[in-house]
């Protein structure tokens, strides 16, 4: 898994759109691009990670930061996360979640 960069926005939108379509949700690509650009340029907002198999992006994870009353400090919330259908069941998602924990 690696940190996403500005050059990854198109790939990330493709990953998010694929999962959105599975869920019956229509993604607004310009809105997604804008949100990703904000996350990638302002690290106070959160982190975006990409999981690759070889040179193919097969998963992404977006963690955004919130203030937690319970902990009295910032906390990360998994806001968006998917694994491409052909790569599911191989433990990639579990490994990604374990890494950001």
Provide tags for this entry:
single chain; alpha+beta; Aminopeptidase; 4-stranded antiparallel beta sheet; 4 strands
Short description:
By secondary structure, the protein is an alpha+beta fold. The protein is built from three helices and four strands.
Architecture blueprint of SSEs:
Blueprint: E1 2-3, H1 9-22, H2 29-41, E2 46-53, E3 56-68, E4 73-83, H3 92-100
How would you describe the overall organization of this protein?
With 101 residues, this protein is α+β, with helices and mostly antiparallel strands. It has one domain (2-100): Gcn5-related N-acetyltransferase (GNAT) (Aminopeptidase, 3-Layer(aba) Sandwich). It has 3 helices and 4 strands. The chain has helices spanning 9-22, 29-41, 92-100; strands at 2-3, 46-53, 56-68, 73-83. The protein has a 4-stranded antiparallel beta sheet with strand order 1-2-3-4, with helices on both faces. Helix 1 crosses helix 2. The longest helix has 14 residues, at 9-22. The two termini are 13 Å apart. The model has no long low-confidence stretch (mean pLDDT 92).
């Amino acid at each position: 898994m690696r940190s996403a960069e500005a050059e990854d926005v198109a790939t990330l939108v493709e990953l998010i759109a694929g999962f959105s379509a599975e869920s019956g949700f229509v993604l607004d690509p310009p809105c997604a691009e804008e949100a990703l650009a904000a996350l990638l340029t302002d690290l106070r907002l959160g982190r975006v990670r990409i999981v690759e198999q070889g040179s193919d992006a097969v998963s992404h994870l977006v963690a955004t930061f919130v203030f937690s009353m319970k902990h009295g400090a910032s906390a990360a919330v998994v806001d968006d996360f998917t694994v491409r259908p052909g790569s599911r069941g191989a433990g990639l998602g579990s490994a990604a979640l374990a890494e950001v924990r």
